[in-house]
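U., I forgot to send this yesterday:
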Amino acid sequence: CPLKMQGTSVAASAGSIGDLFTSLGAKPPVLGEEYARLKEQLRPPQAALGEAWQRLEEAIAKEALEIAQKGSGVIPEVDFAAIEANGGHFPAEVAHAIQKRGCVVVRNTVDPELALAMKADAERYIAANKDKLAGFPQDNPMVWEVYWSKAQMKMREHARMLATQTALNRLWHCRASGDESPVDVHRPLTYCDRLRIRKAGDKSFTLGPHIDGGSTERWEDEEYRKVYSSIMNCDWEEYDAFDATHRAEAKYDLY
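Result:
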């Protein structure tokens, strides 16, 4: 039976992803006065901010029109074989599209039979440990607080998964100050994440817009702030989302 903590099962007390997002029902945090002072320090001149905002609105309107016309076609797609044939790199035109859109669909990475077998294995693991696991939504979980099941580990260690991750890492660059770059893009690290098994047609789990990898640290930590210096200076067009120069030494977890 599940362990008990002050009359509550481990599964219930552990919480779920629903506790982290206001779009899923979590209460928004209350920030202190220090954040108002920080924002005042960072705020650019009003005239420059207004001009930058206008340019941004015009750019977004243009992109929104293209998305409306192309639909999901704006998301780049590539077959894994193309990465393999290109020495572990995305073809140049695909790489450019990924850096523009921030996402990609890589086809034929894992055989369907293996993917389905691992899904079934994960479902068996959940069924055997259901009383000890937290999930969301609570009445019909599809996102489980499961990170290290055997099925997940097998898929993370799959050679083609690692090759795809490495190809993605190689889209990044770092302007090193010395002879050695502080960022290694050729050896991927294992990234553990929750397990999601979505039921067809489900709309109960939809995350609001968010960015992982820190929160207010982006503005509080001086090194992390340098990542967004072009945006802070109202030159958002110069921002390079794949420049890891200041990310290596940034403090992501102040809290």
